[in-house]
Amino acid sequence: MSSAAPHAILLADYKPFPYLLGHVDLHFALHPTQTRVKARLAFAPNPAAEPGQDLRLDGEQLVLKSLALNGSPLGLQPDATGLTIPFADLPKGAFTLETEVEISPQTNTSLDGLYMSNGMYCTQCEAQGFRKITFYPDRPDVMARFDVTMETDLPVQLSNGNPTGPGAWHDPWPKPAYLFALVAGDLVAHSDSFTTMSGRSVALNIYVRPGDAHKCAYAMDSLIRSMKWDEQVYGREYDLDIFNIVAVDDFNMGAMENKGLNIFNSKLVLATAETATDDDYARIEAVIAHEYFHNWSGNRITCRDWFQLCLKEGLTVYRDQQFSGDMRGHAVKRIDDVLTLRARQFREDQGPLAHPVRPESYMEINNFYTATIYEKGAEVIGMLKLLVGDDAYAKALDLYFTRHDGQAATIEDWLRVFEDTTGRDLTQFKRWYTEAGTPRLKVTDDFKDGTYTLHFEQENRATPGQPWKGPKVLPIAVGLLFGDDETHSPTTVLEMTETRQSFQFKGLAHRPCPSILRGFSAPVVLDHPQQYPQHDFLLAHDTDPFNKWEAGRAFAKDQLARMTAGAELSPAWAKALARVVLDAGLDPAFRALCLRLPSDDDMAQTLHDAGQTPDPDRIYAARRAMGDALAAHMEPHLPGLVADMANPGPFTPDAKAAGRRALGNAALALLTRVDHGAAAQMAYATADNMTDTVGALSCLLDIGAGEAEAALFAERWSGDANVMDKWFALRIGLATPGKAVAVAQELTAHPLFNWKNPNRFRALIGTLAGHHAGFHAANGAGYAFVAEWLLRMDQLNPQTAARLSTGFETWPRYSAGRQALIRAELRRIQATPGLSRNLGEMVGRMLDS
Ligand code: B3K
Ligand code: ZN
User: Which percentage of the chain shows pLDDT scores above 70?
Assistant: First the structure.
């Protein structure tokens, strides 16, 4: 638990650290409860800082055993958050500080700092875990070269950099402490090698528990493709002799980019056809790439302070999205990314936790690893690239990597490379970094004397602490369609900078149908009063794949909104959708995305944004009715579609085969609605891979059947934690709203509900919080259940508890009754003695708005 009294840290207060740290020697005598850490820190005064300052080192939960300055013992005692060496005690020039501390990895349940997972020692230091390992200036702008040695009986002993002997490592690249890592365990390696563009050979290893080595091939292949891609696309070469990845079962997030020693949640490494779904494979590929790409965007160039987090995260997400698009197809990747953006970032931006891509204050930095920093941070880069063009983007990135190599940089530095490359003034564009909230873009049009005019108006609504905002620079990609026989309609990027702005298209023979915001060229909510037949027309004819999909989406949302208000579903919708889904000329993965109905949470967000109060039960019922109507309409085609999508030959995880499975399983889900599960039962019995197994089981659970299959599944996979997480999530996620809380409650008594494991906790508690109608049960049982478990988790692992508390962030959307119930739970959490700074800050921000 964080012991410091909460107080706000401000961007405006940044000051350079008064001492430079040239070199660090660390020695670990590893022991489960009495690990000894010796540190030798070589300091010199920082000429860029104000002279005469004390030396303040961060340190939490450390037992200080000895302290010496230039070899002479010092009789100082630490306080709860660190150690201060008064300026008067410091020599004039360079000096060396030596400390020895004792820590207890086994009892460190926060999974932050040095901890143990299944008998293995591992670390997580971003953002501020290093201060739980030794006394240190734990801030990203203090960079040093590290030498590490360790003593332990465990056979595999790893740290950053290159090995210099058994259990000894030297990292030649100066780095901040958050990139430090150490692993010791009984592990086996899946090994390979990579030859870089300048001909250096790099040893590659993925370390896992004995018995799991056969599950690493896909992660290794993804790593090699990432290394090649970063050379080819960004000219970035790897810079050590060795690159290690370690998979651990107990991990607070997905993975961590420690220099030369990435540590991964095992669910993002281990994959075989039998145990991993296509989504797992895609995620493994993306996260392996993301962490590898951080070697340049994050490690070689790091952040000056944590307010600049998007500098590394937004850019690295943007790079991993480009990579996945190159590997798997850009149209489908873009649709997936926009679905995630809306589900997580638009949701955040609409509620009490909204914050700018570069925040200006925080209490607990770990609460800011958010969709806004990551996903919106990436969108901002995509807009910048669209505005300056691909060539200028490439030049600006080259300049960024050369100018700032080895530095701890800022968003100002980042924007300056674009300004210097292009001569553009990015002052207005910078609002994307400093102002929170999703702009709304209203569109109207007119046509007169051969001139078609698009009128745009942008609205930038207030967010917590930011009542007023200026207009944003919006790149709006537009195409005009004139008839149903177009094979290509060119895209023009309009640059909007004012609150209201019109753009004319002259010399047209007749009025076009506009396709606006192609490729989702800016992260805005489009308010474009188009309806059937425009949706129908664009769904059939738009040559921009994103907007073709978006037209179907807008059509479905329009229908769902009417249905929640009591109207009937229009038969035109199913007809229009079926035409695309059955078009064999289109990519199956794209057709599968078209079949995916808007989620309940997405509908609630959309209704709230339009000024209505969403009713979770009505949304659920409308979406079910819509699925039933589509199934009835498509019934004659479904068995054929399911059969057509079967892949010939053995399982392969590539995008083409995965796309066919996605469409086949989406069609099977519809078929299950009309054949009462006959085809899905057969599919379950014959499935030879996890995608089809989960696909068939989901179909059955979705219609309230599948008990026998679910039991078989649990029996077969009880020994595989990553697979069992899926089982917990399916049972709860597919329960009917009236039963979801009861099912979740019952599963907390399951012998495999190891709630201390973050993956399992997310699979159960997180899935309930994401079951829209179940979580928002009118009697408040969902809220009380989640609150109870957050409080329990907070005692052990505040980061995971705080992360899951975002289940409550949407409270302002709902009826007064539900609002009161949620706020009561949030107040109950807030009033709990001993609450962590992490959860305390989250709950406080949610209640304050
Ligand atoms: N940089 C890490 C995330 C650290 C989260 C700290 N609470 C993983 C990533 O973004 O690549
Ligand atoms: Zn990252």
Answer: 99
Q: Which of 522, 557, 590 finishes a domain?
A: 522
Q: How many domains does the chain have?
A: 4
Question: Are 559 and 468 part of one and the same domain?
Answer: no
Q: Report the alpha-carbon angle 438-444-449, nearest 5.
A: 150
Residues 354, 445 share a domain: no
User: Could you tell me the residue range of the domain that residue 31 belongs to?
Assistant: 9-186
Establish if 817 belongs to a structural domain: no
37 touches 134 (CB < 8 A): yes
DSSP state, residue 748: T
Label residue 175 left, alpha or beta by phi (over 0 means left) and psi (-120 to 50 means alpha): beta
Taking CA atoms only, the protein residue closest to ligand 1 atom 8 is: 256
Torsion of CA 841, 126, 372, 235, to 10 degrees: 170
- Flag whether 200 is in a domain: no
pLDDT for 531 equals 80
Shared-domain flag, residues 509 and 533? no
CATH at residue 665: 1.25.50.10
The dihedrals phi and psi of 689, each to the nearest 5 degrees, come to -150, 160
Helix 721-733 to helix 690-702 angle (10° resolution) is: 20
Q: Is 506 exposed, middle or buried (0-12, 13-18, 19+ CB in 10 A)?
A: exposed
* pLDDT class of 2 with cuts at 50, 70, 90: very low
**Pocket probe mutation, ligand 1, options 262, 309, 313, max atoms within 8 Å of Cβ:** 313
For residue 293, the tally of other CB atoms under 10 A from its CB is 27
Domain's final residue, options 186, 208, 224: 186
Q: Which CATH number do you get for residue 353?
A: 1.10.390.10
514: tokens are 């506009």
Look at residue 117 and tell me if it is in a domain.
yes
Q: Give the pLDDT of residue 408.
A: 98
Q: Is any atom of ligand 1 closer than 6 Å to the C-beta of 800?
A: no
Assess whether 78 and 96 both reside in one domain: yes
User: Which spans in 302-389 are helix H?
Assistant: 309-328, 330-340, 347-350, 371, 377-388
Distance separating alpha carbons of residues 422 and 34, to the nearest angstrom: 56
CATH number, domain at 449?
Answer: 2.60.40.1840
**CB 313 near ligand 1, within 6 Å:** yes
Of residues 298, 205, 215, the one with CA closest to residue 249: 215
Tell me the average pLDDT across 6-25.
Answer: 96
Model confidence over 761-797: pLDDT tens digits?
999 999 999 999 999 999 999 999 999 999 999 999 9
* Together in a domain, 103 and 142: yes
| Active-site annotation holder among 126, 257, 291, 825 | 291
Has 364 been annotated as catalytic?
A: no
Residue 80 CB-half CA count within 13 A: 6
- Which of 501, 479, 476, 497 is CA-nearest to residue 488? 479
Peptide bond into 831 cis (omega under 30): no
Is 534 part of any domain? yes
pTM over 0.85: yes
Atom of ligand 1 nearest to the CA of 365: 7
Cα 361 versus chain centre, distance: 21
582 phi, psi to nearest 5 deg: -95, 5
